Structure formats: C-alpha cells, structure tokens
Amino acid sequence: MFVPKSLLRRLYRKGSLKATDEGFEFILTNNIATGTLTSPLSLKVDGEQVDPTAVTIVKDGEEVPNAEISSSNPIKFSAGTSVTVRVKKKLEKGKHTIEISANTREYGPISFDIEDELE
C-alpha cells in the first residue's frame, strides 16, 4: 500500500532536532495509524547514508538498537506513540534534510524526508 510522503512527513515533530553529546536526535510521533517496523530505519542526512548501527530508537524509555529491528524482531508503533531517534553522528548548526525509509508490515516500504534546523 502506497502512503504519500506528505502524510508521512506528519510523523516528524517539527523543532525536535537537537544536538546530543554523541550526535543528534529527533522525535517521531505516530499520529496516523498503527504500524510495525520490520526492518531497521534507513537514514540519510544531507544526502549522506547513516550507518544503521549508529542509530538507536527509544520507545517507552527502552533503547532499541536500530540494526536489531527485523521481521522476527519488529517494533510496533501504535497510533499516538512517540519515539526518539538517536544518531551517533555530529551535525553542524543550521538546516538539515533527513531522509527516512523503512519497511512496515501493514504498508510495505515507506519513505519520506524532512527539513529542520539544528540550533
């Protein structure tokens, strides 16, 4: 099932891009419908691919290594759920484009991009 990028962009919480000691993080809030990730998130920052092992997803206070997400070890995102995506990659202050792709059980492959500013 195709899900439009314009709808998927609503998952990103605008203004949530923040620097951390190890890199940066942002928040995704599922305000659409329940979905289950069956593969690691694929991230590109300003066109550069991020190593999946450098990404951690924090859901309900529990850290899940991105690289461990699979069809046999999925993550379910119920409607209304928020997660923090932490990335071990330093970013300069300013505007950045982040491309997010994943496979879901319910909708198949999804992909969208967002733009935000790191202050």
In short:
With 119 residues, the protein is mainly β. The chain has one helix and eleven strands; from the N terminus they run H-E-E-E-E-E-E-E-E-E-E-E.
The coarse silhouette is globular
Secondary-structure content class: mainly beta
Question: In sequence order, what are the helices and strands, one letter per element?
Answer: HEEEEEEEEEEE
Instruction: Please give the order of strands in the largest beta sheet.
Output: 1-2-9-6-7
Rg, please? 13 Å
Strand content: over 45%
Number of separate structural domains: 1
Name of the CATH first level:
Mainly Beta
* CATH fold name: Immunoglobulin-like
**Biggest sheet descriptor:** 5 strands, antiparallel
What's the CATH architecture name? Answer: Sandwich
**Alpha plus pi helix count:** 1
> In percent, how helical is the residue content?
under 10%
Spans of at least 5 consecutive residues with low confidence: none
Distance between the termini: 37 Å
Could you tell me the mean pLDDT? Answer: 95
Number of strands: 11
The oligomeric state of the chains shown is single chain
What do these coordinates show?
With 119 residues, the protein is mainly beta. The protein has one domain (5-118): Sandwich (Immunoglobulin-like), CATH 2.60.40. Helices cover 3% and strands 48% of the residues. The chain contains one helix and eleven strands, in the order αβββββββββββ. The chain has one helix spanning 5-8, and strands at residues 18-19, 24-29, 35-37, 42-45, 48-49, 55-59, 62-65, 75-77, 82-87, 94-104, 108-118. The strands form three sheets. Strands 1-2-9-6-7 form a five-stranded antiparallel beta sheet, with no helix packed on it. A hairpin with a 2-residue loop joins strand 4 (42-45) and strand 5 (48-49). The longest helix is centred in the first third of the chain and has 4 residues, at 5-8. The radius of gyration is 13 Å and the shape is globular. The mean pLDDT is 95.
